[in-house]
Specification:
By secondary structure, the chain is mostly beta strands. The protein contains no helices and eight strands. The strands form two sheets. The chain has a four-stranded antiparallel sheet with strand order 1-3-6-5, with no helix packed on it. A four-stranded mixed sheet has the order 2-7-8-4, with no helix packed on it.
């Protein structure tokens, strides 16, 4: 009597969707207020000037300018937004 042995159910087959983490705006890129710069779990990067941090450790721009990555205290990596240099004002002609 030929027959097949009962196949067990697979215990694999579960996976979650990727979380789309990482750097979204790189050094030197121009951002506007509200742009997300980095999505991260924990504080791999810390907020510098003109940058805020969200509840989920997302770093975002609070003013417009160029993104700058730099080292700070205790070797921490900081992200700042450097505002564009204002053009020199011409003297008002009288």
């Amino acid at each position: 009597m030929a027959h097949k042995k009962a196949g067990g159910s697979s215990r694999n087959g579960r996976d979650s969707a990727g979380r789309r983490l990482g750097v979204k705006k790189f050094g030197g890129e121009i951002v506007i207020p509200g742009n997300i710069i980095v999505r991260q779990r924990g504080t791999k990067f810390h907020p510098g000037t003109h940058v805020g941090i969200g509840r989920d450790h997302t770093i975002f721009a609070t003013s417009g300018g160029a993104v700058q990555f730099h080292k700070g205290l205790a070797g921490r990596k900081y992200i700042s937004v450097v505002p564009p240099a204002a053009p020199p004002q011409a003297e008002a002609a009288e």
